[in-house]
Amino acid sequence: MRGISLDEIVVSTKIGKRLLRALEDEQFDLLPGGIFNKSYVRAYAKCVGIDEDEAVAAYLEAAQETPPDNRVIAHQASFHSDRLPERRGFPVVPVLILLVVIAGGIGGWKAYQDRQRDHASAVPSGETTSQSSSAAAAVAKNSVTQAAASGAMESPPPSSAVSAPRTAPTLGESAKAATQNPSSSAASAAGVAGATPTNAVAGAPFEVIIRPKGSAWVSVKSDGKFVVRGIIKPPDVKTIHATGQVIFWTGNAGAVEVSFNGKNVSLTGGPNDEQVLVFDSRGVLRRPAAAQ
Predict the structure, then answer these.
(1) Which of 49, 76, 83, 182 is 20 to 30 A removed from 92 (C-alpha atoms)?
(2) Cα separation of 205 and 217, whole Å?
(3) Which of 274, 83, 40 minimizes the C-alpha distance to 180?
């Protein structure tokens, strides 16, 4: 009569279409029964806009079901309320057990930490000293090996067996030897750098800048340590800061520019000529003649 389709009632009540059709056709045996049927009737009545209580009464009459007696419902409610257990107080015992378990766990963890700490502190001092000595010996062995390798790289290989000890060559002698034997100029320059006295007194800090104009082999030793050794090319500018002594050597003097504290230092050698310079805080100490 109101033009409401069964599909709309399904969407509104969320009740299956089969159940609603059984309700309309009074096939109550297809319904779940009991309170569910009354709920379906109320939802149906609310959706189509009729009185819910009247619809439930009509359903009970059509299904030949008698409504429950209110006195029986009240009696059952009072019977169940009398048999309900009395409400107990706060569960003290379970809480105490839980607290004891937590305290025991914390105490066990602290005891475990204390045991680990005591075990770590009980390591014999002799074992620690032995380990330290072994580590120091290994470091010393590595240092000796590296020093030997560095000395082998810096010193030229001997042409014959050495029969008697000799003093280290001076800077002038090494430069002269490099001039007479051009094929070993790199080894001679390394020997000059290695033979330079290392007891130079530290003075005011100074700066030496090397600017390559082309490809040139350069070796620079600053305060007893090699800081540059290899081929440099533009625009690779090397800036060396020192307080004691700087030894500069190049195998291509015509391709390198050198400055001391911002002032250019002229090199007497040309392309492919060897040049050796020694600096301290006062400037150039010695400048051997370039190889011809």
Answers:
(1) 83
(2) 26
(3) 274
Are 218 and 189 in contact by the 8 Å Cβ rule? The answer is: no
- For residue 148, which phi and psi values (nearest 5 degrees)? -65, -40
Q: What is the pLDDT of residue 64?
A: 77
Q: Which letter does DSSP use for residue 49 in this model?
A: T
Residues 6+ apart with CB under 8 A from 63: 26, 28, 37
Cβ atoms of residues 223 and 243 within 8 Å: yes
Nearest partner of 177 among 159, 165, 164, 163, judged by Cα? 159
- For residue 277, give every residue at least 6 positions away whose Cβ sits within 8 Å of its Cβ, in sequence order, or none: 247, 248, 249, 258, 265, 267, 284, 286, 287
Output Rg (C-alpha) for the chain, integer angstroms: 52
DSSP state, 31?
S
Distance CA 253, CA 216 (A): 8
Domains of the chain plus CATH, in order, are 6-80 (1.10.260), 171-286 (no CATH)
Q: What is the pLDDT confidence band of residue 62, given thresholds at 50, 70 and 90? A: confident
Distance CA 9, CA 13 (A): 6
pLDDT tens column, 156-189: 444 433 334 444 444 445 444 444 444 444 444 4
Contact yes or no for 47/5 (Cβ under 8 A): no
Closest CA to 16 of 4, 26, 25, 7: 7
* H-helix segments, 49-91: 52-62, 70-82
